[in-house]
Design brief:
This protein is mainly α. The chain has one domain. Helices cover 89% and strands 0% of the residues. Helix 1 crosses helix 3 and helix 3 runs antiparallel to helix 4. It is globular, with a radius of gyration of 14 Å. The protein starts with a helix and ends with a helix.
């Protein structure tokens, strides 16, 4: 589990830098479409590169994102921060499960990553709609 946490931490740090650049350049469209692709590629790629559990790396990434959500915007209120944190854990756990199931059932890393990215895109769109 320590290795999965380390890989997820690397993915989270890289995602933080990449996501900020994408949002600065493309705005909310990046959150909807580009960030999911990058995050799913980072999490799955690092898990497979190091021979780690794909679902655990994804879930661990969700824990890092949850920590960020709890600490990053103290002015937004604790209910919003805790909701965002729980959604991060739930969402990334789901994306990891989808990825792992498709790798296991279909044997295709590409299909798994693309499918998880699609689920992540839909998730982000729904979250953004609810947030408004």
């Amino acid at each position: 589990m320590v290795k999965e946490l380390a890989a997820a931490g690397i993915a989270a740090l890289l995602a933080l830098k990449i996501n900020r650049a994408m949002v600065n350049r493309f705005g909310e469209g990046a959150v909807k479409f580009l960030i999911p692709i990058g995050e799913e590629g980072l999490k799955t790629g690092l898990a497979l590169l190091f021979g780690l559990s794909v679902p655990v790396v994804h879930l661990s990434f969700g824990l890092y994102e949850a920590g960020y959500d709890l600490l990053a915007n103290p002015g937004s209120g604790s209910t919003k921060r805790w909701t965002a944190a729980l959604l991060a854990i739930t969402g990334h756990g789901l994306f990891g499960w989808v990825t792992w199931q498709l790798i296991r059932l279909k044997g295709s890393i590409i299909l798994a990553a693309v499918s998880a990215s699609a689920v992540h895109v839909v998730w982000n769109i729904i979250v953004l709609i609810i947030k408004r």
